[in-house]
Amino acid sequence: MGHVFDLKDANSYEDWLAKGSSRAVLETETALMLSMLRPVPGESLLDIGCGTGASLSPFLGRGISLTGIEPSPNMLDYAKQRLGSRVDLHRGYAEDLPFDDNSFNCSIFFLSLEFVDDPAKAIEEACRVTKDRIFIGIINKYSMYGAVRRIRAMFGPTLFRHARFFSIFGIQRILFNLLGEVPFSWKTALHTAGLSGGLLNDPGRFALLEKNPFGAFAAMVAVPIPHYRTIALPLLVDKVRKAPTGEQVASCSGDFRRVGKQ
Would 256 be classed as within a structural domain? Predict the structure, then answer.
């Protein structure tokens, strides 16, 4: 099940989001998500751990059918205020999604995988309900920002005191263990010390920086190509009859030959 945010946590997140610098960080992260996921009108998308709905807002008005699932009723209250009836919101857990197989074109974990109890099971469930693309956005374990967040969580109450941190290649191992070596791509954002604003955080301005594995926000997309298990079945044919000597029979090449002593 993982950590379920209480009302204090939900209020703290919304207070953080109200700051101008925080909005700049969110806009940088969601811009990278959109550029990698590339949703098109008519598709459906599931946000797993949608929180207060901030990660769904960039998809509004794009002709996409949006669904969010979140275990915290306090976070969902904020999401309902922010999104209204434009998104189908559910209360539930990442490890046990209440949706049929292949229900969505895309699914996303936007800074939510850190808080689930069983990340591998959560990703497995996402693969089950998703047909085309899975996006995973995390706070990079190997970034300076991630290190600071881990240290602060040790000494004071923060939203990340219940989080576990991941690396790009740790997520890749989980996905490959589940799906085999499916198409997988990654980029990072937020490479400067201040994290918000500044030339180095402008998405697409410096393409080489996006392949720096130490950016604070790591974004990954996997394509869950289905694999099928084959089962050997008995070949149902009549009992093989031995041709009498002298009778013409067809070979596999289509030639006729006469059965007899050589």
Answer: no
